[in-house]
Specification:
The structure is a single chain. By secondary structure, this protein is of the alpha/beta class. It folds into two domains: 106 residues, 3-Layer(aba) Sandwich (Rossmann fold); 122 residues, Rossmann fold. 41% of the residues lie in helices and 19% in strands. The protein has ten helices and ten strands. The protein has a five-stranded parallel sheet, with helices on both faces. The longest helix has 13 residues.
């Protein structure tokens, strides 16, 4: 799923735009301050940046132009306001109106008609039978990457960045929590939604999962509709 970072003052208009875009994109709101926004740019790695000029710190605009010039930018504001920041080289300038901004974003960064088919989902499980079952259940819905261990999964990141990760809680060598820590430690990958898969529902395990700040968990054996719904929900956050 393509990612959009919205930078600028967050009010009801901006959140309405974000909600509307979230149906097709992964959307985050960024601080209008320089250092905080730069950190989010590094971790989130957006496909497009939308900047509201009124009220946005010039420092972050400077940082975007210097360090993230390859990422296309849409400016919400007047042509006169945009002209004051020639270093941005925006792909488009449009009025700060929800529908106008939404249409401009969608034309600049088109989304596929079948959004589920574009999601890359990594399944990490030491059970080869589970991996085969996932391939059978989900192979026609998502672009699947199968990993038999946590260490193998981290190495596969070099080839493809998943949109969502399904992670077995109980594995030898690196268990689910250890694998999650390894994923969170990879620069630029800490924001990937992770859904735990577990065959045990003891209070201590469920508490560990809740405390891990993940996108939730599914009990094994989970069926295709439940997994699909959980993946799509996690991808839109």
């Amino acid at each position: 799923m393509k990612k959009i970072l919205l930078i600028g003052k967050t009010d009801s208009t901006y959140t309405e735009l974000g909600d509307k875009l979230s149906a097709h994109y992964s959307v985050r709101y960024g601080s209008s301050g320089g250092f905080a926004a730069e950190a989010l740019l590094n971790s989130f790695a957006p496909s497009l940046i939308v900047i509201r000029l009124p009220g946005t710190d010039r420092d972050i605009i400077q940082r975007i132009s210097e360090k993230f010039s390859a990422v296309p930018v849409i400016v919400l504001g007047t042509p006169e306001e945009a002209a004051a920041y020639p270093e941005l080289h925006p792909a488009a300038v449009c009025a700060d109106i929800v529908q106008t901004a939404y249409d401009t974003v969608c034309s600049t960064l088109p989304y596929p008609d079948d959004s589920t088919g574009t999601l890359t989902v990594m399944v990490i499980d030491d059970d080869a039978g589970i991996l085969r079952m996932m391939k059978t259940m989900l192979g026609d819905k998502f672009d699947l990457v199968l990993a038999p261990s946590g260490s193998k999964a981290v190495k596969l990141f070099e080839k493809k960045r998943p949109d969502v990760i399904l992670l077995d809680y109980e594995m030898p060598e690196m268990n689910g929590l250890q694998t999650l820590a390894a994923i969170r430690g990879v620069k630029g990958y800490s924001d990937i939604p992770v859904i735990f898969l577990t065959g045990a529902n003891t209070p201590d395990i469920l508490e560990n999962i809740r405390a891990a700040n993940t996108a939730g968990y599914l009990m094994k054996p989970a069926d295709a509709p439940d997994i699909t719904a959980a993946v799509l929900k996690a991808a839109k956050k």
